[in-house]
Each structure stands twice: as C-alpha cells, then as structure tokens.
Amino acid sequence: MKERIEQIVNSAKERINKIEDLQELQELKVRLLGKKSELSDLLKGLGTVAKEERPKIGSLVNEARQELEEKIGTAEKKLKEKVMNQKLEKEKIDITAPSTKITRGSKHPINRVIEEIQDIFVSMGYDVVDGPELETDEFCFERLNLPKGHPARDMQDSFYITDEYLLRTQTSSVQARTMLGNENKTPIRMICIGKTYRKEDDATHSHQFNQVEGLVVDYKEKNISLADLKGTLEVFMKKMLGENTELRFRPSYFPFTEPSYEVDVTCFKCGGKGCSLCKKTGWIELLGSGMVHPKVLEMNGYDPERYSGFAFGTGIDRLAMFKYGITDMRYLYTNDVRFLKQFDRKDNNF
Amino acid sequence: MILSRNFLKDYIDIDESIDITTLAEDMTKVGNEYDLASELIPATNLVIGKVIECVNHPDSDHLHCCKVDIGTEVLNIVCGAPNVREGIKVIVALVGAELPGGIVIKKGIIRGQESNGMICALYEIGIDKKFLSEEDKNGIHILDDKAPIGESPAKYMKLDDSIIDFELTANRGDLLSILGMAYEVGAIYNKKVRLPDLSHNEFGEDLNNSFSVKVNTDNCTLFIARKALNVTIKESPDFIRNRLIACGIRPINNVVDISNYVMLECGQPLHFYDADKLENVIEVRMANKGEILTTLDGNKRVLEETDIVISDGKRAIGLAGVMGGLDTEIVGTTKNVLIESAIFNNVKIRKTSNKILRSEASNRFEKGLDPARAYMAMERAVKLLEEYADAQIQTGKVVYDVTNKEYKEIDITVDDINSLLGTNITNDETIDVFRRLDFETSVKDNIITVKIPTRRLDISIKEDLIEEVGRIYGVNNIKGKLPVTPIKIGSVDKTDIEIRNKMISLGLNETLSYILIGDKDVHKFTSDEFEELKLLAPMTEEKNVLRYSLINSLYKIFEYNKAHYIKDVSIFEIGKGFWKKGDIYGEDKKLCCLMTGEYYLGIDTKKNVDFYVIKGVVEEVLDYLGYENRYSFVIPKNTISEFHPGQVAEINVNGDIVGVIGRIHPEISKDSVYVFEINLNKLLSKKVSKMKFKDISVYPTVNKDIAFTIDKNVTADEISKVIKKAGGNLLVNYKLFDIYTNQILGNKKSVAYSLTFGSNNKTLTDEEINPIIEKIIESLQKAFNAELRK
Fold first, then answer.
1. What does pTM read for this prediction?
2. Å from A88 to nearest chain B CA?
3. Residue of A100, A117, A226 to mutate, testing the B interface (most B Cβ within 10 Å of its Cβ)
C-alpha cells in the first residue's frame, strides 16, 4: 500500500512539474485531490484493509495529500508570477515619449505684480481699497492741494470728459476719497492699485498705465515720520526687487505732500554700476512720496494739528517690465497671445 | 534751466576740484534733478592749428589735402569743407579725439591720401547749429589770427565752460536764475553769495516828469519802467554771447542779449521797447475781446478778455509776459529803449502762453516772481546797457507797485522737525541749516523764528521749512524704520483674483487692454442705452471715447493676433466699462471673454470652439462663484446687431440680466468667434449662501436613460424644467447627453436624458423608480407631445 501511495505521489509530482498553464493546474488539482482522485479512492477502499493497518494508511494518505497540496500551491504561485510578468512586460511603455498635455491659461504680468504688491501690504496691515477711474477734478486735483490753474497740473496732461470729469491721472485721488469717506477719522493704512491715464504716448510712456498708492494717517502722538516712510518703502522695494536693492531719497515737489521725495532704487539692470537703462547713474527713479500736506489732511476732514501721515505712489508697468525682463513697454498692451502665454506658471520670489 | 558754471562763478566760489557731475549729483541730493551734466564743448583732444598748405585732392572734386601746423608737428589732414584754405587758423581734432555723437578720430587713408586728424566745424564739437552764423553752419570754424597754435580752442574761444541741464520742480521758480542757483549751491557747500554789480550813472530829467504807468487790472502787481538813451546796437561781448549759448539762448544783438542775460541772472523777464515808437504812457489792462495785435513773430493775434496787454494808451504794444508787439520791437536802428520789469498774474500768463507760445519768459512768470528781483533786474539791465551798449540811463524810474512788502516769518521748533522727519537734529544744527540757506533766524524759548527771503515763494508753512532742513541735513542720513502701530489684518477683496484664477485654470489667457476706443465702436456689442463719454481733447480719433463694452477691446486683440497668424485665441479680461445716464456718470467692472479656433478641454481633448464651449466657461465661472442653479440663458429681447441672431443669449441671474453671450455676426468676422461679457458689479451684488456640507447618502444611486422625440423648437431648458418638476425629490440628477435630427424625424428631434435617482434613506427599487419615470414621460407627452423611443 505504501508503495502505491508513493507511486501516486511521484507520478503526480511529475505531472505538476510539467504544467505551464494555471487553468490546467486547477484541473489537475481536482484530479489529484478531488473526490474522484486516486488518493480519495484509497481512503474509500480502507474498508478492505486490516483494522490495525487503517490509521497508518489513513495518515499516509493524508501526508501524501498535504505534500501534493503544497506542491500545487508552489506551482500555482510560480505560474501566477509568470503570468503577471508577461502582462507587465506587455504593458511596458516608453516613459520618455510626449505626455498628454493639459492646457494652462496665463495671468498678465501687470496683474501678477499687482497681486504681489497687495500681498506685501496686506501682510503689513494695509487695507486694499478701490476707487473710480472716471474721477472728478475735485478728487483728482483740488482736494489734493492742486487748485485750478496750479502749475503742477502741467505735470499731468489729463483726459477730460467735461470740465469736471476726467480719467484719473493718479491713484492719489483715492487718498482724498478714503480720508473724506472715513467718518470717524480713525487712523488709515491703505493702498489702492489701479489704472491711471495721462495724455502721453511714446516708447516709454503709455497713455494708460498702472499705479499703486499708499497712505498712512495716524494720531500725532504716533509720530508717523519720514523715517517710517523710508522704512516702509525699503521693505516694499526689497521685497519686490531683491534684498540688495538700495533706496535713495531726493527732495522733490508734489502739491499733496510736504516735504516731498522722489525715490530712486538701485538700477535693476546693472545693480548700480551704471548702464544705459539708468543713464550711467546706477539709479532708477521709481517712486514719489512724502509726508501728507497739512492742507490735504485739512481739506479731507483730518485736523492737521491732531493727525499726520505719509503717502507714496509708484508705477507698476516698469516694475513688471523689470521683473520679467520685458524689453518694450508696448508688449504690455498689445496682447499678442505669444506674449501672454509666456506668463503661465507660478512666480518665483526674488 | 541750464546752468553755466562760468556764469555761476560770478556769484559764488566753487572749489575747482568739484567737477560738473559731482556738482550735479550734489544738487540732485537736495532735490534738483538734472538731465545732463557735461562740458559745453564735449570733445577731447582739440588743438588750434594753422593750415600751411591746402591743395585739391587728386581723386575728388570737393576734398582738400591740407598740411596743418599744430606746434609740435605738421599733420596731413584731408578736409571736405568748402571754406578751408591756406593761412587760416582752425580747430583740429587729433587722432584719438572723441567728438559728440560717439565719433572717434582715427588715422586713415581717404581716397588714397593720408589723413591724421580732422579740421572741425563748431557744430561738430558740440555747439548747436541754431547758435551759428551761416558760414559756421556750412563749413569749418575759422579762428582769428591771434589764436595761439597748439593751445585749446575752447579756452581761446572762452567756450571752456561746463553745463548742467536741470529738470526743476514746479515750486522752485527761484531756481530759474543763476542767482537762485548760487544760493542753492551756497547752502550745499557752505559758501556766501555775491550780488551782481548794479552801479551806473544817471542823466537828465526824472523820467516821472515825462512818462507815466497806469495799471487798470488786478492781474499786474508790479510795473517798473526806465529809459536807456542813445544805445549802440552791435554784437555782444564774448562772455554774454557764450553764456547765452551755454544756457541755450541764441545771441542776437547786445541790447536784446542783455535783456536775456539779466533774465538768466536774476530770474526776472524784462521787455525792451523801442521808446521812440511809443507814446509817453504805458497802460496795463485786460484785452478787449477781438482786439488785434501783431506780435514780433509777425503773427496777427486775436486777443481775448483773459489776455493781459500792455498798451501805450492808443494801441496794444505787447502781450504781457508772453510776447511783444512787432512795431515796437528793438531793431538795428533803435536809439532809445524803454525797459519793462513787471509781475503779472501767473495763471493768466499761463493761459495766454499755452495759447501762443511757451517761452523762457512765460515759464518764469508762471512760476511766480520775487518783487525784489524785479527791482534788481531793472538796475542790472541799465548797468549792462551803460557798459555794453553805450547807453545813457535817464534819471528815475516810474513804478506801480502793489506787492506785499511784509516778510513772511515762520516759527518752528526742533520737536516739529524731529517728529516729522524721525530725526534727532539739534537746535544748533537747525539754525546752521538756515544760515547756509541765507535765511535770517531769531531764537526765543526754543522757538526759532525764520524770516523767509522774498525769493523763496515756495515757503509758506512750517512743513516747507522742515523740508528745507531735511534736504540740507541730508535725507539719506535719516534711518528708515517701520511705523509703530497696533497690529491689524489688512482687508482685501480677492473676488477678482479668484475669478481671474478660475479663468486661467480653464486655459484662458489674460489680457490688459486700453479703455479708450473710437467713438464709432462704443455702442457695439450691446443694446444697453447710455450716453457715450467722449474726451474733450483726444490724442487720436481711434481713442476718443471711453469704452462701455470690453468686447470691443477683446475683438481688436483677436484681430491683431489673427493678423499675426494666430488662429487659436482664448482670452479674457477683467476691466471697466464707462457710461453716463442723465446726470449720472458711472463705471462697471466687467468680465469679458473671447474664444475662437481650437480650445483644449482638458486632457488631450481638443475641440473647435462653439457656443456650447464658451457657455461652459460662463457656467463654470457662475457655478464657481456660487450661483449654481440660479441662472439661465435667455434669447435677448432687443437685437444686438453685432451678434449672430441665432447664437446669442442674455445671461440671466435671478431674473436680472447680468451679461451677454454669443457668436460674433458672420458679417463682422468670417471666423467663428464667440464672446461673453458679465457685469461683475451687477452679478456680485447678488448674495451667495455659505458653502455648507450636505450629508452623503450611504445608499447607491440608480441610473436610467430615456430617449424621446420632440418638436425641434422645444428648448433644452424647457424640457429640463418639466423633467425636474415631474422627477421630484428622488431624481437627484438629470443630464441631456444626446440630441440628433435627421430627415425621417422631420420637424422633430431625438433627445436622450440620463436620469439619476437616489435617496438618503434607502436603496431605491425598480418599483419605486419606474412610476417616476412614467410620470416624467407623461409630463413630457402632455407638455410637448413627446414620444418615448423604445
């Protein structure tokens, strides 16, 4: 009997070894271990065996079953692996081949810079406020200490619609609106960013351009001073143009501030060495600023005896041109799709 | 204002070691920006030479071969000037010389002849042609016989000057004079200003006995008249001519030059009349409307009531502060000169000069003048006329003067200064700054009282003085810090940015366009009624009105790109549109989008843009902003002729029209161009509920498709409404996924919907769903005669 079992096991092993296909292996498993298998038959025939021999043979048969089950299990695992490997091999691709593109849109460089400036000032506690582009002479000039006939109005040749209405020449108009609109005359810390218009069109001037305006007004005891203005603009410019940027304040004249300063920054092209962009001076004139003129405070409802503050403004177009190395201002307003599509990724910081 | 260093040196000592660029930079630091600082003759390596031989070039009909003695050697130079000849002394640019315009002189062979230098014309070494005689305009400059060979020609011609061209601020009229500049330079370098020599002799009877001045307008506050008799008209001395040239004014003759010279010196414009052509009275008045004056440029001017005129009692003889009359002009035969030194209303002068001519004189009147200087300029003018025009100065001056004689005095403390500047400047430092500026001060109980010189019209309040202290102390010596204020969070509305980012995520490119367009376009792409806003004085007719619809701008951008062979254009912009309705002026923020050509709908799916693509963009934006299920697309009541009549809709949110969408009319563009525009002010005024979590059903949903034929003209919107109503709560979603028509269907179309049913409480069975479907079909039958397709 024992020989018979060994014979069955050996012949089964041989058959298992030869099998190459999972399906066949399943079928063989049924034939070898199923109810109708030879081993099952042996157990069924135990009745014909001597009583004392029965347990021994029974356990021999079970051992044989176990051995075969293991053998089949191993074979099955091997075959599955083989099948998987074949499948993987078949699915192998050229990972260097072109991807299926998803189109990205693009954000205009001017608006990129505007968003960046907003973030800088909001993080310093400034409110971002908005104002009309179609402005009145009152807010654009008169409430900023520029009465009719003032020679400084010449600096800004304006687009008038009527004697009273014009396209704002400067975002400074929002200074007057903000002060006048703040009924409780609480301290102000605001910026306004937007389009401005002046009657000039040449290689370096567009009749439509963008400005940011900042205004800080606080109680006199807070001593808002020129030093604070300098510090604020230093933070702003270094953040926009890089930590190595230096600022140079030059006394100047704006009717709405006194004292007034023009602010130069280290030339962004040559880093201050002197080049064609900065006319060999190493400086680029970028901002106008100053301490809010007492008359402006007064005209807009802030008692100059109780309040003081500073204001500043700068053009955004030139910042954008510098930041992205745009060589000709006209690109900004031509809207050539080949230009626009270049601004389609996250900005990196300086 | 151009500053001549030689001119300046008459009134203040400047260390010779300070070069012109340093002087310009130091002036810049105190607030006086400049455009250019350079030598008056910005050419190097020039010497005086003598032409010792001049023969015609063998291979040219106009060139000459010259031998030029420059003292140390004799150079061969080929020269093309018509006036070169043997024996003359000339300006020679040596090899290596740099001339204006970046020209560098090199050794060369010109048509076979050696040439080691260049004989120069004045305009070649930097003197503008407008200052030159006819001969000098057409050829080389010939120096006189006394010119020393080998020396510097600039020095010999007294043109060894250097200049700074300042761009002054509008408030500093005082700097439109060499004297004003001297005070400024003196404050920087701590030097004292010398005043000009005014000494002169006077002759004869007092002018007041024979001449009078009447002022009949508030617009003249000062008028001084004097007479210089028996003048000799001739060329001015070199120093006057050269200084005028350095300052950009063309020399004419000694008398005219002196009036300009004194204006440069003192900042006060003068006017000289030929006294023999006048009556014995001057009257200053406003012009009569329609009055005519021929000005000295020969133009007949029709005057207005806002022009100030000078008259001799009979007729207008000059437009005050702007231009004199032709028939009282100084000419070669003039013998007696009436000199006017006056102050007129700056606003009136500005208005007149804007109309007629902006000149050196009108510029000074506009900025405001110092009465003290008007007196000084008169005395200086007669001094120079006596010296350089052989004039006899008649005794006395006729004066009308209603100017304010009181000095402005301003009290200030160092605390005022330090709190505004953020500095620690001391009392002594402050007083020293004022001393440098030549401002008188007195101190009492820490209060500094500053007497403001009449020349400084720009100083009227304490803050002006603080500015003075700041700029002389040096702004760049002030250390920056940040304001000490309570921490607060800045507020910002990021809706625009969110919309912009949404559009970009849809693959659209953001543009930035001009708001000014042509008036022929302003009412296009809209049926809204409004008055257009036209510029009073546009730059061009293409940009003479403010846009209402941004579609105009975006369509222009499409055209530009098409012209540059870019067919696929998907662009958008957030910008403003402007209008007037009755007395109200307004502006609205709008979102505009234009799409044409191919559009990428995501991963690898390219599609030609059609109405439904751009409609998808609108819906995506509206859904994103929280308006889902609150909008519809409605056929417009009024035709908008720029749109395809069958592919246009108004975008309706909660019953209000907020925008328009459609295809541009094929007559306007052969390409399929689609646009939409949404008035964001209108849209965003509609409140949106908070984003809020809804329970997720644990039970599966069931999908059923139905297809039916229906009349062609029934819209998807109409069908959807019926389905939604009939479907009730358990119909959680429905989607149109197929529409088709063919000949067999005739006037009908086949429409297929996918319906999704679900419940939060249980898994729905067919027994529950089927009756709903039947109800939907019944409703469709009832409403539209729809037939179920099986």
1. 0.83
2. 25
3. A226
